[in-house]
Amino acid sequence: MRSCLWQVGPRTNQKQGQWLEDHLAKVDRDRQYVRQVLSRVVCELRERQVYCSLLQEVKEEAESKAALHDVITRAEDGFRMTDQLQKHLQDVHQQSSLDLERREELAALLQDRLQEVQVRTSGERRYVSCSGQLLLFQTNKLHSSAQKNLETRTALLMTQLEEERRSHQESVNFLKEQQGLLGDRLEELMRRYEEVVEEKQEELSSLKTSRTQNLQLLQQLAQKYRHSEQVVIEDRVEKENLRRRREEEELQRHAATMIQAWWRGCMVRRGPLSRGKESKKKKKKKKTT
């Protein structure tokens, strides 16, 4: 029993040390996971000005952490109950050892007294012997009863200890299973993240190419538009100049027509007067001759 109790402590310390290492490894994985989530959120904020993935990840992580915290709490309660049972078992074993030593000392003392009584008087030897044997029988009977009760309690404690060990092992197996599931989930999330990043990169490249093509097309259209606008402006200017020249020519023709009409009118009006003056001059010349 002592060797069994001696081996429980180091195993518990070893398990606690292993649990501490697993806990530190989990903390490191959580740190890396948070870094990846933050980088993904930063990319999402830069691209779409939202952070929905962060809220979703925080919600899922809170639920997972709550479940894991519940499991860890039950495991810690199991550890504490195991330690309490071990301590109680040690106390019971020590108390049993003390009771056994006291009974052995009492039996030895009674044996010594019996021998003294046998030396003092032979008449009382039989009585003392019977009394001593009776007392020894009663003591052995009490000791046997106490031993049986102790064995029964020890068996019960061992059963409870085995049950606690089994519960602890189930908790450890459950935690390992959850750790494996979380690892698989993390790998799946990383794979999806890489696929999404690759798709977004391809979309970005396609958008850049389309943007370049659209920009080139827009520049070509702008150049054609400027050329067409220049042609239209030049055509308008040419038409305006032609219209002005035609108006000027029309005005000139009209003015020339007016001048000709005026001159003809003048000539028509001056025609008879000039003929009369010439005839008068001819008559005067004839008279003088």
UniProtKB/TrEMBL annotation:
It is found in: Cytoplasm, Cytoskeleton, Flagellum axoneme. GO terms for cellular component: cytoplasm; sperm flagellum. One of its GO terms (biological process) is sperm axoneme assembly. Pfam families: IQ. InterPro entries: IQ_motif_EF-hand-BS (IPR000048), IQCG (IPR042618). Residues 158-257 form a coiled coil. Keywords: Cell projection, Cilium, Coiled coil, Cytoplasm, Cytoskeleton, Flagellum. Gene3D superfamilies: 1.20.5.190. Belongs to the DRC9 family. This is Dynein regulatory complex protein 9. It comes from Merluccius polli (Benguela hake).
